[in-house]
Amino acid sequence: MKLSTTRREMLAGLGALALAPAASASGLLSLRAILDGVAAAGPPEAILAALRKARPDGLNPADSAILRMVTRGLERESALRRAFPFGRPDGSSPYVISQRHGAYLQLEAADPARRLDEETDRLRFEAARGVAPPRFILDSVLESQRALQRRAAPELAAALGRQIDALASLSAGASETPGVWRLRGGEDYYRLRLRFASGLDEGPEEIERRVAAETAALLRRADRLLSGLGLSRGNVGERLRALRRRPGQGFANDEAGRTRAVAGMNSALARLRPRLGALFNPPLETGGAVRRMSAADEREGKRGYRDPASGAYYPDFAAVQERPAWTLATVAFHETIPGHLLQLRRQARADPHPLQLRHAPGYPEGWAIYAETLVDGLGLLSPLEQLGLLQSVLFRLARVTCDIGLHLRRWDRARALRYLEDVVGFELFFPFAVEVDRYAAEPGAFAGDATVALTLRRLGRSAAASGRLRAFHDSVLDRGPLSAETIERIV
Fold first, then answer.
1. What pLDDT score was predicted for residue 45?
2. Edge-to-edge, what's the strand order for the sheet holding 289-290?
3. pLDDT in the model for residue 28
4. Which of 55, 128, 347, 484 has minimal CB crowding within 10 Å?
């Protein structure tokens, strides 16, 4: 069981320090040479020490900002590990096992029985020190593991049985409270976790304020659009549900319905392509298409996925009747052009270092959220499609509000569910109950998405007003992923 940096890690780190990049005769090093030289140092603390021995003199301002981003990310990660040596080693969850984490989810990996037993020991150790999942997480894991045990080979079934016993024992006396504020050191953990996940030194109160201000503006606009459609009674969520119930808003749950949904998404992309020159400098990303999944993928219930090589997005339309037509244009823009596929192609050309990728939290999703709003700015969306956009962005912001609500404001699960229903209306990807339970298991997971999107939105408006929008997009796409803080510095 590993609660802190081990002696082996420390020795590896010291060895890497000896191999840290030496300055050339000119005293100058490239960003990649610096990061390559320290990447193998071991835990974050050792990489930091190696970075401090490197000589970053002569880096251009953008590379200096990226180096600072990596350094600040390592500092935040190290502070989190020191303050809260429990849960997942990367700090993503305060719990060693949850519905989203654990060896039981990776039984195809090497020596799963040993890994299960190690996690069981650590689960007991941490629970004895006041860090254990709430009952609803424990019961979800128990249900999954009992199903796995029934079809497992004897050795694996025995290891699963030992973990099931430990989980059941904890569940009997566990709390239903979802927030980490109830844990020993939990509030400090959350504040540190939010700094790491957001890429900012702002506290949760400031992030909450920024998200609330944007949410209020979006709700006001949604209210006006819904009123224009004859829906003026109830909160925005109630009216979005009423709109979905209107005849003609969905698709038939058959081959023709799925084909029509895909055709509508491609039609939306066709509207955008001639206008890309207003947003981006040449060469323009003219690719991007939506395609039907194979029949086998659909039968297996495969989730939607992107294929960057071909520039295609394959949506999950197993329950196409649940997807109003007015929500799908935004999905097409988010997943392809100017969203994920455009960003991934630019990232491939930039070839960022893995340390840069790790310490630019929320950048890919933040860019795609921002990209949705770019299309709106071109005036290409109908009033109904504008509601689809607003609902999508409201959902991304509501995730952060609920997360802070659970972990700092002491919300219960029911309050978080009500908030999602009131603001977002209905599920876009996963049931709201699944969403809320994920926030409980992975505190701060979506903070980076929101902070990057809000930063891009604010700076993008300023760039557009001064005629610099295309140059702005080059600056934030052509260097690989960036944190919200680094976007501010580079722009």
1. 93
2. 289-290, 312-314, 305-307
3. 53
4. 128
State mean pLDDT over 366-373: 97
Quote the CA–CA distance of 248 and 178 in Å, as a whole number.
Answer: 39
Nearest CA to 339 out of 405, 387, 268 is that of 268
What is the DSSP track for 258-323?
HHHHHHHHHHHHHHHGGGGGGT-PSSP----EE-PPPHHHHHHTPPPEEETTTTEEE---TTGGGS
Contact 353, 36 (CB under 8 A): yes
pLDDT tens-place string over residues 35-58: 999 999 989 999 999 998 887 778
**How sure is the predictor about 491, in pLDDT bands with cuts at 50, 70 and 90?**
confident
Where b means 16+ CB within 10 Å and e means fewer, 188-221 reads ebbbbbbbbbbbbebebeebbebbeebbeebbee
pLDDT at 130 over 90: yes
Lowest mean pLDDT among 307-316, 336-345, 463-472: 307-316
Q: How far apart are CA 445 and CA 405, in angstroms?
A: 14
Q: Are 44 and 91 in contact (CB under 8 A)?
A: no
Backbone angles phi, psi at 100, to 5 degrees: -120, -5
- DSSP letter string over 195-252? HHHHTS---HHHHHHHHHHHHHHHHHHHHHHHHHTT--SS-HHHHHHHHHHSTTSS--
Cis ω before 431 (30° cut-off from 0): no
- What residues contact residue 353 under an 8 Å CB cut-off, 6+ apart? 31, 32, 35, 36, 39
Q: For residues 324 and 265, is the Cβ–Cβ distance under 8 A? A: no
CA of 291: how far to CAs of 126, 276, 299, 316, in Å?
Answer: 47, 21, 16, 10
Query: What is the C-alpha to C-alpha distance for residues 460 and 372, in angstroms, rounded to an integer?
Result: 13
| 250 φψ region: left (φ > 0), alpha (ψ -120 to 50), beta (else) | beta
Q: Please write the tens of the pLDDT for every residue from 222-270.
A: 999 999 999 999 999 999 999 999 999 999 999 999 999 999 999 999 9
| Contact predicate 166/145, CB 8 Å | no
- The alpha carbon of 13 is separated from its chain's Cα centroid by a whole number of angstroms, namely 30
CA 219 to chain centre: 23
pLDDT of 134 above 70: yes
Q: Select from 392, 396, 390, 377 the least CA-distant residue to 469.
A: 377
Mean pLDDT of all residues in 406-424: 98
What is the pairing mode between strands 305-307 and 289-290? unpaired
* DSSP track, 12-32: HHHHHHHTSPPP-TTS---HH
Asked whether the beta carbons of 400 and 447 are under 8 A apart, the reply is: yes
